[in-house]
Amino acid sequence: MPRRFRAVEVLVAALTLLFGAACGSRLPESDFTGHDAASEPPARAEPLRVGIVTSATSPVGGRAFTGPRDGALAYFERLNARGGVDGRRVEVHTCDDGGSGVGNNECVRELVDERRVVALVATAVLDYAAAPRVSAAGVPDIGGQPVGPAYETYPHLYSIYGSLAPRTGDEPGWDGKLYGGTEVYRYFKREHGARTAAVVSYNQSASAAYARLVTQGLRAEGYEVVTEQVDFALPNFRAVAADLKEQGADLVFDALDSHGNARLCAAMDDVGAHVTAKVTNAQNWTDTVAEDYEDAPACRNSLWVTGSSRNHQDTGHPAVREFRHAMKGRPLSQWALEGWAAAMWFTDAAKTCTRAEPETAATRACVDAYLEKGGPYDADGLLVPVVFEHRDEPPETRTTCLSVARWRDGEGWVTQSGDMNSNCFDVPQLAYKP
Q1: What b/e string do you get for 185-214 counting C-beta neighbours within 10 Å, with b at 16 or more?
Q2: Are 159 and 388 in contact (CB under 8 A)?
Q3: What's the fold here for domain 7-179+317-373?
Q4: Which among 125, 128, 142 has a CA at the least distance from the CA of 338?
Q5: What pLDDT is attached to residue 12?
Q6: What pLDDT is stored for residue 375 in this prediction?
Q7: Are 18 and 261 within 8 A, CB to CB?
Q8: pLDDT band of 257, cuts 50, 70, 90
Q9: Could you give the strand order of the β-sheet that contains 119-121, starting from the edge strand earlier in sequence?
Q10: Residue 6: predicted pLDDT
């Protein structure tokens, strides 16, 4: 779908310059076509196999991509403890692609061709080089994180945020262009009266490209924009922080990695540069903020985040409470919650397929059809309703809803501005090249 500009899509490409379980025997396709449940109960116990591909050891760092995997694993563990999908256990096969295109192709070969998984779930990878292969095999990829344009290009790939693009496999979006909304900038202007925003990037092509996208959106919303750039190899964050103070920016957006964000925040504290909001993205919506920003208490308490899923600390919501209970000591983050939602999405599809056509036993094609034709999906209220359409032309405007949270020491991420499904804006959709 046309969506807000997502930092992780463009930024991760820049980060490559900064810095599972093994899959086994080949299984025949018949393992996934099922049998007559009434006449042969043992076949009903045959597990449903799913795959999770994660760049767990990518050049970006060990924690960057593992949240969706952890959330999905927690969901499937809980599901199996409760009897699985109508009595069928979900058998999960994970694969670490190492953050490389070669590794990604190898993981997909093992999971799709050898393990014959019904679906991939909660994909979070640095280089989705095997996306054409997944699509050609007709394997649904459910709830993947859209790092790069694959989920806006190929059929059978369903990002956790939805899509309205044609997804014919030829090129991303519409004529090679994607579209993003300006709702984040509208929110801070409406709710906090922000008028001046700074955008900080590295002098590296992908980082600078994302900074230009943010700048474009901010200017479309009437902001005065201050652009700051630091050297990729030897960044002088103190000089940037001093200029932010001089310019009197209300907001700070960035095209930096997590480590760079923490260093920028520390520099802002050192020079006394205080802002209304230091805005980050869902990838950094984690419970490790106090540790990651330990040298920047003032800036840390000005961290805000926006996204398309319910705050993972919103314990007043029953689905969030269930997620947190099932995580059992695993790191808590927004990406983990979205991985949990992706696993739920697969489960709802598999249940629908099994009950509607027991003889098919949740084939790839049936699960794919559920995703393709199903109505808006919200994962028991954890997601802003997700839709998939194939529009020939992108909309000029779109109503988009936001989940917003702010970090507070002693409280963690505190939800702002009420329920995410009511925090909505009709905003222009701006084109950009991925």
Answers
A1: bbbbbeeeebebbbbbbbebebbbbbbebb
A2: no
A3: Rossmann fold (3.40.50)
A4: 142
A5: 52
A6: 82
A7: no
A8: confident
A9: 90-96, 48-54, 119-121, 141-144, 157-159
A10: 55
Helix or strand holding residue 347 (H, E): helix 334-356
Coil, strand or helix at 323: helix
Say if CB 147 and CB 128 are below 8 A apart.
yes
- At 43, is the secondary structure helix, strand, or coil? helix
Q: Which two tokens stand for residue 137?
A: 């095999």
Encode pLDDT of 337-385 as tens digits: 999 999 999 999 999 999 887 766 789 999 999 999 878 999 999 999 9
Contact 71, 332 (CB under 8 A): no
Say yes or no to pLDDT of 39 above 70.
Answer: no
What is the CB neighbour count within 10 angstroms for residue 87? 11
Query: Considering only CA atoms, which of 361, 367, 368 is closest in space to residue 30?
Result: 361
Tokens of 150: 């694959």
List, for residues 84-127, the tens digit of each pLDDT value: 999 999 999 999 999 999 999 999 999 999 999 999 999 999 99
Token code pair at residue 36: 């007559």
Q: Which two tokens stand for residue 369?
A: 């059809």
The number of angstroms, rounded, from the C-alpha of 178 to the middle of its chain's C-alpha atoms is 16
d(CA 269, CA 292): 14
Q: What are the distances in angstroms from CA 355 to CA 37, 87, 214, 348?
A: 11, 12, 46, 11
Is 60 exposed, middle or buried, given 0-12, 13-18 or 19+ CB atoms closer than 10 A? buried
Residue 65 forms beta bridges with which residues? none
CATH (one of 2.60.40.10, 3.40.50.2300, 3.20.20.60, 3.30.700.20) for 180-312+401-432: 3.40.50.2300
- 41, pLDDT greater than 90: no
DSSP, collapsed to helix, strand or coil, labels residue 194 as coil
